[in-house]
Amino acid sequence: MPRILIVDDESVFRKGLRKMITSLEGNWEVVGEASDGYDALDKLDELSPEVLLTDIRMPRMDGIQLQQMAGGRFKDLITVVVSGYDEFAYVQQSMRQGAKDYLTKPVERQELSRVLEKLGRELAERKALPVQQTEAWQARPVLKRHVAGHLSESLLKGKTGESDLQLLRELGFTIRHPYFICMVIKLDKHSVEKERYLQSDASLFLLYIQQVVQEMIDRHATGISFVLSDTEVVALLNTAEPQQSLSAPGALGDMIRRQIRSLSNLTVTIGVSNPAEGLPGIPKAYTEAGIALLYRLIEGGDKLLDYALMTRRPHSGGGPLKWSWEMLEKSIVDGRVASIGAIVEHMIEELCSTAESPESIHQQICKLLLYYYELSEELGVTESWLGSKDIRKVLFDVCSLSSRQELAEKCRGLLLGLTGCIAKSREAKDPDPVHAAQRYISQHYHHPLSLKEVADEVYLNPAYFSNLFKQRTGVTFIEFLTHIRIDEARKKLAFTDDKISRIAEETGFGNVRHFNRVFKNASGFSPKEYRDSTRIGPAARAPGEQ
User: Fold this and answer.
1) Which of 175, 203, 226, 475 is 20 to 30 A from 526 in CA distance terms?
2) What is the CATH number of domain 3-128?
3) Residue 274's closest CA among 233, 239, 234, 244?
4) Which tens digit of pLDDT belongs to each residue from 494-514?
5) Domain 433-535: CATH class, spelled out
6) In 3D, which of 394, 385, 387 has the Cα closest to residue 420?
7) Residue 362: which residues within 8 A CB-CB, separation 6 or more?
8) Model-level pTM greater than 0.70?
């Protein structure tokens, strides 16, 4: 009975295929299911199916990568791939790797039957042939790219087991020396035309870089490389020398950087660790390479950054940058979108040029963003600004950046977004913040108003609001508020019999003594004198008249 393994990251699709296969004539046995390529490799070892039916698009290890891995280890395995209508380019690539056939989603029962019937005949013919000795599996260079992803977590976290070491040996990477050096390689995005980068799959750039890195390693050293994430390629070199340098001119790291540039016009920045002893030292080496790479903020891109040299470099900065927050804030609260980008880029460039360390750069940027986060909270626009993102996630993303251009782009985008949110919120309330403030004061003068409260109401920073209010009205916030309160107090004194202490409270003065002093300074009369002057005949003289 022919045996088949189904691989797809959607459990519903796996179950549907299983049911369809078992209902067909031909006595096929579905021996198992797998959710991705790594799971499938284990099941292939365990279950020894004759046919692999795999989806092309899957996370972690896709169908093509699985086919490459399985093709080297299981010579007699027959592969059939399943694809969507828009994935024919992947199908072509898979067929070049040796796939016998392909099915298109959604899989039709008649088409599945046709393919399995053909495979059944081929398997029957094979069994009729005499048994031949098969060669031991020899890993092809292309496989190193894909298996490394499976091993990367265990290697970089210091959890390498004997099975992982065996798989490395099968790939041709035998650990012969006592030391490891880690390199983390990142593409300098600005070396790619923006349109080209956006139109391409970013992973293709990293795959190309990884291929060049591995070719250089195979020529000049012992090691393995892999695409670790959407942004970085990692290489581990096995060396006999505890002091070997990769950053010197002509050394391997420098050759890799220059080779990538000469072949593609792409530039990369490479962080290099100190040599670490044994497999347990790899996690530390990876951390050091990542720290070295952060110095791209200070040193710029298209460089090889050695951890030992970077952490011993003299501090060129004079402490935290004293930038002009006022200029940036004025642009944000005024809605001057056109000027924000230039201000942010200038700030980032100056900060990175004078900073003592990458940590000090991130610290300053985090302070800046936290300041505007607090402002957005005060103004009630945080949700419209950040959506469902937590400010901690925003800061984490910022601190993971090691490129000046990317850091400036990230900050510019965040602050432009905040500017738009503040402007929209203000427009919804009143297009003129000073008029809105005057109206708010007139409606709430009887409360203990503060400058900050009114500034928040009109979405302006208190210091900026204070200056703007004085420019537009000719008086300060306190003078305007006092004028409103005194006017209201005059009306109550003239037209009601309320006690002066009650009038003081109803017009926003903290106590009657303070009210008496302010009223007399403003009108020349005490509250009692003013009330008395309004109750006598028009011929009577006001207090103080001669």
Assistant:
1) 475
2) 3.40.50.2300
3) 244
4) 878 889 999 999 899 888 999
5) mainly alpha
6) 385
7) 398, 399
8) no
